[in-house]
Amino acid sequence: MTWEVVIGLEVHAELTTRTKMFCGCPTTFGASPNTQTCPICLGMPGTLPVINRRAIEFGVRTALAFNCRINTACRFARKHYYYPDMPKNFQISQYEEPLAEDGWLEIDVQGGTKRIGIQRLHMEEDVGKLIHDGTLETAPSSRVDFNRAGVPLMETVSKPELRSPEEAAAYLRAFRSVLMYLGVCDGNMEEGSMRCDANISLRRPGATELGTKVEIKNLNSFRNAQRALEFEVKRQAQALEAGEKIVQETRLFDADKGYTRSMRSKEYAHDYRYFPEPDLVPLKLEGAFVDGIRAALPELARAQQQRFVAQYGLPAYDAGILTQSRALAGYYEAAVSALAPGGSTASPASAKAVANWIMSELLRVVPGDDERAIAESPVPPAHLAGLIALIDDGTISGKIAKDVFEKMVRSREDARTIVQREGLTQVADTGAIAAIVDQVIAANPKAIADFKAGKTAAAKSLVGQVMKATQGKANPAIVNTLIEEKLAKV
Amino acid sequence: MTDPTRLTAHELTDAFRSGAATPSAVTEAYLGRIAKLDGKVRAYLTVTDGRARAAAAASDARYRAGKPLGPLDGVPISYKDVLSTRGVKTTCGSRILESWVPPFDATVVTRLAAAGVVPLGKSNMDEFAMGSSTEHSAFQLTANPWDLARVPGGSSGGPAAAVAGDLAAISLGTDTGGSIRQPGAFCGIVGMKPTYGRVSRYGLVAFASSLDQIGPFAKDVRDAALVLRAIAGVDPADATSVDVPVPDYAASLGEGMRGLRVGVLEYDTAGMDPDVQRAVTAAIDVLKGLGATTQAVTLPTADHGLAAYYIIAPAEASSNLARYDGVKYGLRALGKDLIDMESRTRAAGFGAEVKRRIMLGTYALSSGYYDAYYGKAQKVRTLIRRDFDAAFEHVDVIVGPTTPGVAFKHGEKEDPLAMYLNDVFTVPANLSGNPGISVPCGFSTSGLPIGLHLVGRAFDEATILRVAYAYEQATTWRTRRPELA
Ligand SMILES: [Zn+2]
Question: What is the pLDDT of residue B122?
Answer without folding.
Answer: 98
